[in-house]
Design brief:
single chain, 203 residues, alpha+beta, five-stranded antiparallel sheet, four-stranded mixed sheet, 9 strands
Length: 203
């Protein structure tokens, strides 16, 4: 017959191990036991430059701003490009379904002879549960508070080349005082042929 004291000690040890295991599970983060759902979004934008002889090394900057407190943001909320080209904002990671709102604008620079596009795009990222148990996202944008969705986020800048300065006119050359002055005397009297009259009189 087993010792009652030994049985009680074994039960106490098992109970203590169960408590320690539960405390360990509570102390570990939940994602260690359940895969965290996540989806990422990138937002493509572009800059276009019109005008002849535009410098190709002029840099333009596009900025992403969150309109919701605590909305996910990318590590870098802006992007730059030299001349015309594409700027990809993101990636932005989402773990919770919902609508997230942002604005995208171009930073107005001070490059000479440029007119900057000051349009502002309102962007919505809608995160939903997908059929496979994960998350999926849909993105759309409106320009300057309009009611129609835009297909692309484009900033159109214009370059106007400066006018070349006109060459100054040189001093006028003085007239030569020794050059004879030709004057045309006004014609007076009859302009008929005199020789013709003389011939008629001789006849």
């Amino acid at each position: 017959m087993p010792d009652i004291t030994m049985v009680q000690k074994i039960k106490q040890f098992r109970g203590l191990m169960c408590i320690l295991l539960m405390l360990t599970l509570l102390a570990l983060p939940g994602k260690a036991f359940a895969e965290e759902r996540e989806c990422t979004v990138t937002i493509p934008t572009s800059v276009e430059v019109s005008g002849t002889s535009a410098p190709s090394d002029t840099e333009f900057e596009v900025v992403l701003t969150s309109l919701d407190t605590g909305a996910p943001m990318p590590e870098k909320s802006n992007g730059t490009v030299q001349g015309s080209g594409q700027i990809i904002l993101g990636p932005i990671s989402y773990t919770v379904p919902g609508d997230y709102h942002y604005s995208i604008s171009q930073k107005v620079g001070n490059a000479a002879n440029y007119t900057y596009d000051t349009s502002v795009y309102s962007v919505t990222v809608r995160v939903v549960n997908s059929e496979d148990g994960g998350l999926a996202a849909e993105v759309w944008a409106f320009k300057d508070g309009g009611s129609n969705k835009v297909e692309e986020i484009i900033f159109s800048n214009e370059y106007k080349a400066p006018e070349e300065p006109k060459a100054p006119e040189g001093p006028k050359k003085p007239e030569d005082p020794k050059k004879p002055v030709v004057t045309t005397a006004p014609q007076t009297g009859d302009t008929a042929n005199v020789n013709l009259f003389i011939g008629l009189l001789a006849a």
